[in-house]
Amino acid sequence: MTARVGVVTFPGSLDDKDAVRAVSLAGAEPVALWHADADLKGVDAVVLPGGFSYGDYLRCGAIARFAPLMSELVPAARSGALPVLGICNGFQILCESHLLPGALTRNSSLRFVNRDQVLRMENTRTAWTADYAEGQEILVVLKSGEGSYVADEQTLDQLESEGRVIARYVGGNPNGSRRDIAGITNEHGNVVGLMPHPEHAVEALTGPSTEGLGFFTSILSHLSAGAPAPA
């Protein structure tokens, strides 16, 4: 049976269609999910896409965490049962929802950054990174104004000691993220937040590479294995 991966659209989402295409190219069935619904439609996994949910009012992702759909998504993800990938604004929403620790703040340059970005994959044991090799470098797209990942030293040390940093920036830190962190996972390995955009690197015609597709094929490998992601 084909895996069904939901892609949530919030007011202000602008990368939801790209995420839908990436899911389809990976071989899954994309399912459109609307922020105001309280039903996940029985999907096997969820992508929270990039954009400016609710206009980024208050803080990026601060209002989206209260969307009706999140009332079902958050407990399912927290239990480890539902794989969730948050990209850019989706990462911000995951932090605001306390599914991931820390926060995303203004880039250290105080400028919007838009560039092709090399990442080094650090944790390939999650539901969303299993198709990569540890230490593999991939080229994807980075485009954000509030992409600097911050957390207190105790939290950062815990992420490091538990192997929960899934990717780091290579070739210079583009936004001031602590310890060059580009993405992290929760303790179950089912929730992943990533600031760069793998969905913009899935086709040679339109992206800098096709190396972002691994995030979307990884979830299919995880679901077909039928086992929870290791912590």
UniProtKB/TrEMBL annotation:
<dbReference type="GO" id="GO:0005524">
    <property type="term" value="F:ATP binding"/>
</dbReference>
<keyword id="KW-0963">Cytoplasm</keyword>
<dbReference type="Pfam" id="PF13507">
    <property type="entry name" value="GATase_5"/>
</dbReference>
<comment type="function">
    <text>Part of the phosphoribosylformylglycinamidine synthase complex involved in the purines biosynthetic pathway. Catalyzes the ATP-dependent conversion of formylglycinamide ribonucleotide (FGAR) and glutamine to yield formylglycinamidine ribonucleotide (FGAM) and glutamate. The FGAM synthase complex is composed of three subunits. PurQ produces an ammonia molecule by converting glutamine to glutamate. PurL transfers the ammonia molecule to FGAR to form FGAM in an ATP-dependent manner.</text>
</comment>
<feature type="active site">
    <location>
        <position position="197"/>
    </location>
</feature>
<dbReference type="InterPro" id="IPR029062">
    <property type="entry name" value="Class_I_gatase-like"/>
</dbReference>
<keyword id="KW-0315">Glutamine amidotransferase</keyword>
<dbReference type="GO" id="GO:0004359">
    <property type="term" value="F:glutaminase activity"/>
</dbReference>
<dbReference type="GO" id="GO:0006189">
    <property type="term" value="P:'de novo' IMP biosynthetic process"/>
</dbReference>
<dbReference type="GO" id="GO:0004642">
    <property type="term" value="F:phosphoribosylformylglycinamidine synthase activity"/>
</dbReference>
<keyword id="KW-0378">Hydrolase</keyword>
<keyword id="KW-0658">Purine biosynthesis</keyword>
<keyword id="KW-0067">ATP-binding</keyword>
<keyword id="KW-0547">Nucleotide-binding</keyword>
<feature type="active site">
    <location>
        <position position="199"/>
    </location>
</feature>
<dbReference type="InterPro" id="IPR010075">
    <property type="entry name" value="PRibForGlyAmidine_synth_PurQ"/>
</dbReference>
<dbReference type="GO" id="GO:0005737">
    <property type="term" value="C:cytoplasm"/>
</dbReference>
<comment type="pathway">
    <text>Purine metabolism; IMP biosynthesis via de novo pathway; 5-amino-1-(5-phospho-D-ribosyl)imidazole from N(2)-formyl-N(1)-(5-phospho-D-ribosyl)glycinamide: step 1/2.</text>
</comment>
<comment type="subunit">
    <text>Part of the FGAM synthase complex composed of 1 PurL, 1 PurQ and 2 PurS subunits.</text>
</comment>
<feature type="active site" description="Nucleophile">
    <location>
        <position position="88"/>
    </location>
</feature>
<protein>
    <recommendedName>
        <fullName>Phosphoribosylformylglycinamidine synthase subunit PurQ</fullName>
        <ecNumber>6.3.5.3</ecNumber>
        <ecNumber>3.5.1.2</ecNumber>
    </recommendedName>
</protein>
<keyword id="KW-0436">Ligase</keyword>
